[in-house]
Design goal:
The chain is of the alpha+beta class. It folds into two domains: 263 residues, Periplasmic binding protein-like II (D-Maltodextrin-Binding Protein, domain 2), CATH 3.40.190.10; 205 residues, Dipeptide-binding Protein, Domain 3 (Dipeptide-binding Protein, domain 3). It contains 16 helices and 20 strands.
C-alpha cells in the first residue's frame, strides 16, 4: 500500500509538467562567486527571517518551517530531490489500509533531547490530534481537518483514523510541516503551545543556541536514529532582504543563500568563480490582495478598476527582470487546478471609466509590503500605475515580523497588500487560507463565499483527479470575481551555494538542512 500511495502521489502532482516548467525557465546553471570554502564541520546558511514560533500548528514563515523540519521528526518526509517524492523518516513502516485508515510503526530508539525519553506513538497521537482540538484553535488546523483520532496500538505503533477520505494527507500533511511530531510531555509542560523554545526535540538537529536577529545555531542530535546529517553544526543567519543575502554570500558570511530573482540574469551573464546557482520552480504565489471588506472598496467597480490599472507585465520586467512567469491564479503549473489561460491585459481607459461610474475620483489608498527589494520595486510600479488613473497610493514598508502581524493589527482596516504564500504540491493547502474562518488571520482579502467554502470541503475528499482539478479552477474564478486578487507570479527560488557544499533541497529550492553534505 505504501508503494501505491507513492504512485498516486506522482500521478497527482504530474511531475512531468513540473520538470517541463522548470526547463522552460531556462535558469538552471552553475555560477561562481569569490569566497572561502566552508569547513565540513559547520554549514552557514541564510534564513529568510528570524524565528518567532516553532509550533507546527502555528508557524508563519518559511524560515520557521525550515527550522521545524530540522528539529522535529516526521513519519515520512519529502526527499531532497527535484521531484516531490516522500520517503520513510521516523516511521519504520506506514500503510494506507483503506480510505479512512493509515497504520504506522515508529523506528525504536529515537530520543527526545533532555530527559524526555523515547519518541512513542503517544507523541504522534498528541501531535496530530492537537490540530483539531477546539481549545487550541490552531490556524493550521486545516492540515488535519479530516482527522478523527490516532489510535495507539503499541509503544511504537498506531492507526490514524480519518472521518472521511482526505486527498492531501500524503503530500501536504504527513510529509509537510503539520506532520511534525512533538514531545507530549514537553509541550504539556509548556502549557500546550510552544514559541521559540520547543522544550524537547528529536530531529536530525537540535537547537544549540539562539541569539535573536543575529544567529540560530543547530547541532547534530545524537538521539536521531536516521541517517546522520552531513554537518556537525549549522549556523542560520537571519537576513530579510535578498540583495543583502547576496552581499553576505560574496563576503563569505554564509555558504548557502536564497537570493533575489532579479539578480539571476546578471549572475548568468557574468559568472564569477567558486559557487553554484540553481533556480527552481515553486508552487508559491505572489499577488496583490485587496480587502473587499474595507468600506473604500464596497463598490466592486472600484476593485475592478484597481485591478485593470495595474501593469503586471511591467512588474515582472521591472521587479523580477523577466525571470519569473506570470501567474494565472493561485495554483501553479504542475498542480491539479492550474489554469492555462491568458490573463487580461492592462486596461487604463477601462479603469478610469469604472472609477467615474463609481464616483470614486480622488481615491487615496494604502499598500502594505515587506521591505524586500523585489517587493518594494513592484510596489513602486503599482504606485505609478495607479497614479495614471487618478488614485493616490501610499506605500508602507515593514520588516517581515511586523508585516505578518498586520492581519491581526489592522483587520478590516487593511487596504492593499503585496505578499507571497509558500505552498506544497497540493492546491488545498492554499485554498484553506481563504476560507471565512481565516478572515483577519491569513485571509486578508476577507473573501467570504459559500460556493468557495463548499468546493474546498468537497475537493479534500475527491479522489477523481479531473473532478478535483475542476473544483480548484472554479475556486480561482470565484476569487477573481470578487475583485480582491491580482495574481502576479509564481516566484521561482534562486539559490547560490559554495561548490564545497552539496545542498539538501526540496524541489522548490527550500533547504532540507539534514540533507546538506560537504562536497569532499
Amino acid at each position: 500500500m505504501t508503494q501505491i500511495s507513492r504512485a498516486a502521489f506522482a500521478r497527482f502532482f504530474r511531475l512531468g509538467q513540473t520538470r517541463a516548467y522548470g526547463l522552460a525557465l531556462g535558469l538552471l546553471g552553475a555560477l561562481v562567486l569569490a569566497a572561502p570554502a566552508a569547513q565540513a564541520a559547520e554549514l552557514k546558511a541564510r534564513l529568510q527571517s528570524d524565528i518567532g514560533i516553532l509550533d507546527p500548528a502555528f508557524w508563519q514563515s518559511a524560515a520557521e518551517q525550515q527550522v521545524i523540519d530540522a528539529i522535529f521528526p516526521k513519519l515520512i518526509d519529502f526527499k531532497s530531490s527535484t521531484d516531490w517524492e516522500w520517503e520513510l523518516s521516523a516511521a519504520e513502516s506506514i500503510e494506507q489500509v483503506d480510505d479512512l485508515t493509515i497504520s504506522f510503526t515508529l523506528k525504536p530508539g529515537l530520543m527526545w533531547t533532555g530527559d524526555y525519553g523515547e519518541v512513542t506513538a503517544e507523541d504522534v497521537k498528541f501531535s496530530f490530534e492537537r490540530f483539531v482540538d477546539p481549545a487550541l484553535d490552531a490556524p493550521n488546523k486545516g492540515d488535519w481537518i479530516a482527522l478523527k483520532e490516532v489510535e495507539v496500538t503499541g509503544k511504537y505503533s498506531g492507526v490514524i483514523h480519518l472521518k472521511e477520505p482526505f486527498a492531501p494527507i500524503w503530500w501536504s500533511t504527513l510529509p509537510y510541516t503539520s506532520g511534525a511530531i512533538l514531545s507530549k510531555a514537553a509541550v504539556e509542560k509548556a502549557g500546550g503551545k510552544i514559541t521559540t523554545d520547543p522544550g524537547a526535540t528529536s530531529g536530525p538537529y537540535k537547537i544549540a543556541e539562539w541569539h535573536p536577529k543575529q544567529k540560530l545555531v543547530l547541532a547534530a542530535h545524537d538521539g536521531w536514529n536516521g541517517e546522520a546529517p552531513g554537518y556537525d553544526s549549522v549556523t542560520l543567519v537571519p537576513i530579510n532582504d535578498e540583495k543583502t543575502a547576496e552581499i553576505a554570500f560574496s563576503a563569505g558570511e554564509v555558504d548557502f543563500a536564497e537570493i533575489a530573482i532579479s539578480s539571476v540574469p546578471v549572475l548568468q551573464s557574468d559568472p564569477p568563480e567558486g559557487a553554484k546557482l540553481e533556480v527552481r520552480p515553486t508552487a508559491d504565489y505572489f499577488w496583490l490582495g485587496l480587502n473587499v471588506a474595507n468600506p473604500k472598496f464596497a463598490d466592486i467597480r472600484v476593485r475592478q478598476a484597481i485591478m485593470k490599472a495595474i501593469d503586471v507585465e511591467a512588474i515582472l520586467d521591472g521587479a523580477f527582470f523577466g525571470a519569473a512567469p506570470r501567474a494565472t491564479g493561485m495554483v501553479a503549473p504542475g498542480l491539479l487546478g492550474y489554469r492555462d489561460i491568458t490573463p487580461p491585459a492592462r486596461d487604463v481607459e477601462g479603469a478610469r471609466k469604472l472609477l467615474d461610474e463609481a464616483g470614486a475620483s480622488g481615491l487615496s489608498v494604502e499598500l502594505e509590503v515587506q521591505n524586500i527589494t523585489d517587493g518594494v520595486t513592484a510596489a513602486q510600479i503599482i504606485h505609478a500605475n495607479l497614479a495614471e488613473v487618478g488614485i493616490e497610493l501610499q506605500i508602507n514598508t515593514h520588516d517581515p515580523g511586523g508585516f505578518w502581524n498586520l492581519g491581526e493589527e489592522k483587520g478590516e482596516a487593511l487596504e492593499l497588500t503585496l505578499k507571497s504564500y509558500v505552498n506544497p504540491p497540493d492546491a488545498s493547502w492554499g485554498t484553506q487560507w481563504f476560507l471565512a474562518e481565516q478572515k483577519g488571520i491569513w485571509n486578508w482579502e476577507y473573501l467570504d463565499d459559500p460556493e468557495f467554502e463548499e468546493l474546498h470541503k468537497k475537493a479534500l475528499g475527491e479522489t477523481d483527479f479531473d473532478k478535483r482539478a475542476a473544483m480548484y479552477v472554479r475556486m480561482q474564478e470565484i476569487m477573481d470575481e470578487s475583485g480582491g486578487y491580482l495574481w502576479i507570479t509564481y516566484p521561482p527560488s534562486a539559490v547560490v551555494y559554495r561548490d564545497s557544499v552539496i545542498p539538501g533541497m526540496f524541489p522548490n529550492g527550500r533547504m532540507k538542512l539534514s540533507a546538506f553534505k560537504p562536497a569532499s
